[in-house]
Amino acid sequence: MRAFIAILKDSFREAMASRVLWIALVVIVVVLLALSPIGLRTERSLRLRQQELKDPEQLVQSLAEPGADLANRSAIVHLRNLLNENDSERLKAWTSKEESENRGTNRRGRGLRRDIVEMLNRLRENESFYDAEAFSSLNLDEEIVAQLTAGETESDDYLFASLTTLARVFPESIQLKDDPATVVTYLGTDMTDPVDLLPSQFRMAMDGIIVGVLSVFLGFFGIFGSLLVTASIIPRTFEPGEISLLLSKPVSRTLLFLTKFLGGCIFTLLCATLLVTGVWLILGSRLGEWRTELLWCIPVYVFLFAIYFSVSAVTGAIWRNANVSLILVIVFWICLFVIGATHGFMSENIIKSQRIIEITSAGNQLITVDGSRSVFRWDEDRKDWEEIFKSDGQGMPRILQRLMMSGVRFLPVYDFRNERIIALQTQPSRFGGLSAATVVSGSELGGWERESEGTTPGPVLDLLIDKTGRILLPASGGIYQFNSRSDEQKQTSEYLSKVTFGLFNGKSSDAFVELQTEKIPRWTANASACLDATTGQILILDEGTVHTFVSNEEGKYDIGPTREILKDASGLIACTGNVAMAAFSDGTIHLLDSLSLETIAESKLPDDGLPLVVTSDRIGRTMALLSHDGHVVLADVEQKTLMDWKSNWNGRVSAIAFDNSGHLLTSDGRKTVMVWDGTQQLTDQTKSGHPGWTFPVFDYVVNPLHSILPRPSDMDNAVRYLITGERSAVIDANNDGPANAHQDLRKDRIKLDVWRPIATNAVFICVVLAFGCVYLKYYDF
User: Fold this and answer.
1) Is 38 helix (H, G, I), strand (E, B) or coil?
2) Helix (H) or strand (E) holding 402
């Protein structure tokens, strides 16, 4: 044993003697010293932040054309008159799609939101911001008026007063937060203005920076530099002169090889320990973030290096040439990258674009929607899915369609009164979140052709049909009943649309009738709505608060009880039989009495899962939840209990729904829909479509190859999990989501599988080293 310890010490001395190691250590120390003066300071928020702009589209419309019925119209007109020429032109472009495209100003999502916030903050700096007559309808406090009239436009008190006033002018579009602003300092000097992020978002941004720094410095440069230094260790050990000297002593070839392998890992251990420990000390001493979980990144990156070094060690022992060893490791690295990229591309784009994600029972028809928002019906004669309900946007590639519309649910609903399917065709707003939707319909008699029925008054949360057949649209600021237009009205609308070059889009004031009896809040883009088909009650879950609306004798909706369950949390809700199921972004599930909103039962998704879909039957018996990782939870309405779905099929579920008889419908992540009797037993009504070539190639070639070979790139997921605690990451191709701290639970996510890659990579290292040991044992030196 003493001999092997001596060999290990020699490896350590050899690593310490390496110039590359010392250069790497010096670079790391310089980087840490440069980062060490960084600090954070919090102060009162004095600027409007993007996250506080709740409804940018309504604000822009109100500012451009303030309606005569607006209570704050005089204040809005005053602010519009203060806009400079450039901002006036931009406001005009934001409200005109054609002009926006011609001017090249059609930025989307957070880009436009940022521009609007900057414009509003500039308005507050105007010396003529306050006008007593224009702001008379705001009922401002005397203290605020005193600060606005003091004339000190750069003072903190003035900025806070003007911010409060701005929120009063647009109460439905701006929602101020009490969270302080964060300032980045360096050597005690402010390096930035207050960062326009909430504290929780700043923590997320900081986690992303940490993951990025470690991934670049250790995951790429650190490992590549370590391979350059250690590539010669094994070949030099088994050179004729040196190996003869070593084998003349009582030393096992196998243990010698393994000892040298461990010694080669010392290089990465030294670099990883210095960098990670330095970052940990800076976070703790300078930012007050003592993140002990960060220290686990040291063994993770040493383990990552061991994957590549195991290949380098074995190839070095066989060819006894450092250059050949290094070249083969680089080839191995490239092969793994190509296989991983192919698997990721097929899995997240092609496979998910073609799998079933929505199911609807439409009378005697079974309707499905795949990941690219294409609609299919089951053709019993062909025993396959037939595409129907095609839209003009189908020319967009399926992959791009899925990525661009991620988080925007497209679910056809059966309108039993008119024997057709009807859906909301929603596009992401240019300002982030959702815009007004187009109501589209199609019937079997009409050849399932998609017809436009009209444009909703504003963003709509969902399309609901009550037991009498009324089509209800819970929208931002109201609850509407949609009344279908006659064929004559449709023809007139289409004609006007053509002659006005699309300026008239079929919007009809008679088609949408408001049903709420009182003014209701404007919901965020992530709000969720449901209808209890047995009672007619509507529930809306927004920012962790459940709002109820009760149908009265006139068929309109009165405001019912409200309860905050989880403050500022995203969530999804379903209801039936006077019971509701609310699932939140922290994985908790609450079963509620929908009349009193008291919690009846509570559970939690395993492995910190996130809810994807919640749904209910129409007969008041069962509700179901589907998580992003395919886990299903059922709610028994009569027993008022939550339970994991346990069936005789253990595959992954990609879609759930209920048919008219209350049977549970599930999809297997491919093109199959299964019908479950009593949600437990599989019936003989399974519909399995032809999978095409993509699913077999992925299932029998790409996925097995990806599973067998090591996945070093997945170790970055382990680092992300250790630092952030996240088990999945959102796919956000167009960055159009609202810039707030709430998760959009409907967006596609990549699961960050942590332990499986560690296990497979460990098996790979053992197999490769075992091969090297066997080869050296029987090789005649």
Assistant:
1) strand
2) helix 398-404
Q: What angle do CA 35, 41, 45 make, to 5 degrees?
A: 135
Check if the beta carbon of residue 329 is closer than 8 Å to that of residue 227: yes
Here the tokens at position 708 are: 């067998």
Average pLDDT taken over every residue of the chain? 83
Q: Predicted confidence band at 205 (pLDDT cuts at 50, 70, 90)? A: confident
Would you give the DSSP letter of residue 126? S
Q: Give the H or E element holding residue 541.
A: strand 538-542
Residues listed for the chain: 781
Read off the tokens for 422. Answer: 């009807």
The structure tokens 């050990």 sit at: 237
Residue 509 identity:
S
Largest CA distance in the chain: 101
CB-based contacts of 184, cutoff 8 Å, min separation 6: 38, 39, 40, 190, 191, 192, 195
Structure confidence at residue 641 as a pLDDT band (50, 70, 90)? very high
User: What amino acid is encoded at 53 in this protein?
Assistant: L
Residue 406 pLDDT: 64
DSSP 298-352: HHHHHHHHHHHHHHHHHHHHHH--HHHHHHHHHHHHHHHHHHHHHHHHIIIIIIH
Per-residue pLDDT, 737 = 41
**3-class DSSP string for 484-495:** CCCHHHHHHHHH
DSSP assignment, residue 209?
Answer: H
Of 141, 151, 158, give the one whose Cα is nearest residue 47.
Answer: 158
Other CB atoms within a 10 A radius of the CB of residue 602 amount to 11
Whole-structure pTM value: 0.80
> To the nearest 10°, the Cα dihedral for 553, 555, 559, 562?
100
| H helix intervals, 17-96 | 19-35, 56-64, 73-82, 85-94
Main-chain dihedrals φ then ψ at residue 547, nearest 5 degrees: -115, 135
